[in-house]
């Protein structure tokens, strides 16, 4: 099938756009999980979180969206139907929806704490800030490393992408660029863009909106899947990722949360009762990615 993926339309499945590897059989074997992460740059863990918890979180968030008139009146809130030309509703960080007990039951679930305790072989912490997203029609996320947004503390931060519902590829799924965390072809990208900090440098965060361009310039292949409630996709700060475009008339609900070893310093922008978040980025006219790329020669 043809998939809208940012500025590209790509055939899926194909040699350059395939299926994520299911690593759920390795849960319980932390050494194997760490080796797989080192090899692939991600772990896809179907059914890690209790499905009921994820669906309860979904229901609560969509109720909140319905109360805030973000959904088409008269449609079941649970379907998340968005109005024509609907705007993207901001649910991130301090939004009350991220503090609801049913929502935190999923985002800070015991399953995630147990998983990362074993994976790090020590106590984990999770950032208080939650990147809860209701992604609207024609919206997508461009290719980026998370280090440019949250690289001031531990370099062992793991992003955990949690689909809050059934998310087929045309609904806007997260995609990983396999090998981007260590393949030699990405070395220059890691040494330039990968050293940026959006609050210090005030440069646009996404490296590219064109996933095919990434493959042509650096190599690798894109991987995604049809996600189901309870699935988890986790990866490190230097794994390039992006999302396919939501071409449906329903909001794509998902949340990205972060874990790291509790003994290591945490990026203070994302910690505490009301995390300060990005305090400088985009507050004044910044540098375009095109300009920065020219400077870096990538
Ligand atoms: O959900 C998305 O569209 C983007 C998520 C993301 O970039 C992340 O999890 O770091």
What number of structural domains do the residues give?
1
The CATH topology annotation reads as Jelly Rolls
Low-pLDDT stretches are none
- Structural class, from secondary structure content? alpha+beta
End-to-end CA span: 31 Å
Beta percentage is: 15-25%
The 3D shape can be described as globular
Order of helices and strands: EEEHEHHHEEHEEHHHEEEEH
Mind explaining what this structure looks like?
- With 298 residues, the chain is α+β, with helices and mostly antiparallel strands.
- It has one domain: q2cbj1_9rhob like domain (Jelly Rolls).
- Helix content is 25%, strand content 18%.
- Strands 4, 5, 6, 7, 10 and 12 form a six-stranded antiparallel β-sheet that branches. The chain has a four-stranded mixed β-sheet with strand order 3-9-8-11, with no helix packed on it.
- Helix 2 crosses helix 3 (101-107).
- It starts with a strand and ends with a helix.
- The model has no long low-confidence stretch (mean pLDDT 96).
- The site of 2-oxoglutaric acid has 11 residues, from strand 6, strand 7, strand 11 and strand 12.
Task: Please describe the topology of this protein.
Elements: E1 2-5, E2 8-11, E3 17-19, H1 30-40, E4 42-45, H2 51-67, H3 101-107, H4 110-120, E5 124-126, E6 131-135, H5 147-150, E7 158-163, E8 174-177, H6 187-191, H7 198-201, H8 211-218, E9 222-224, E10 232-235, E11 241-243, E12 252-261, H9 289-296
Parallel strand pairs: 3-9
Antiparallel strand pairs: 1-2, 4-10, 5-12, 6-12, 7-10, 7-12, 8-9, 8-11
The structure holds 2-oxoglutaric acid.
2-oxoglutaric acid binds at residues 133, 135, 141, 146, 159, 161, 174, 241, 243, 254, 256.
């Amino acid at each position: 099938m043809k998939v809208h993926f940012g500025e590209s339309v790509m055939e899926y499945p194909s040699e350059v756009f395939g299926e994520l590897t299911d690593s759920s059989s390795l849960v319980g074997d932390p050494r194997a999980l760490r080796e797989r992460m080192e090899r692939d740059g991600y772990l896809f863990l179907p059914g890690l979180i209790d499905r009921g918890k994820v669906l309860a979180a979904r229901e609560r968030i969509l109720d909140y969206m319905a109360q805030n008139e973000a959904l088409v009146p008269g449609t079941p809130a649970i379907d998340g139907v968005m109005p024509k030309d609907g705007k993207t509703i901001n649910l991130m960080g301090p939004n009350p929806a991220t503090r609801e007990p049913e929502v935190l039951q999923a985002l800070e679930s015991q399953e995630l704490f147990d998983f990362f305790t074993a994976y790090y072989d020590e106590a984990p912490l999770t950032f208080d800030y939650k990147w809860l997203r209701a992604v609207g029609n024609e919206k997508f996320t461009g290719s980026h490393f998370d280090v440019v947004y949250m690289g001031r503390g531990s370099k062992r931060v793991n992003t955990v992408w949690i689909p809050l519902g059934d998310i087929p590829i045309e609904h806007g799924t997260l995609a990983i660029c396999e090998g981007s965390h260590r393949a030699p072809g990405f070395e220059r990208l890691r040494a330039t863009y990968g050293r940026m900090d959006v609050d210090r440098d005030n440069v646009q965060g996404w490296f590219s909106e064109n996933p095919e361009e990434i493959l042509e310039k650096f190599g690798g292949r894109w991987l995604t899947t049809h996600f189901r409630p309870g699935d988890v996709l986790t990866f490190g700060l230097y794994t390039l990722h992006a999302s396919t475009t939501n071409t449906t008339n329903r909001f794509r609900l998902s949340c990205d949360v972060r874990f790291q070893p509790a003994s290591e310093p945490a990026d203070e922008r994302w910690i505490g009762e009301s995390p300060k978040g990005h305090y400088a980025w985009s507050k004044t006219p910044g540098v375009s990615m095109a300009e920065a790329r020219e400077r870096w020669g990538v």
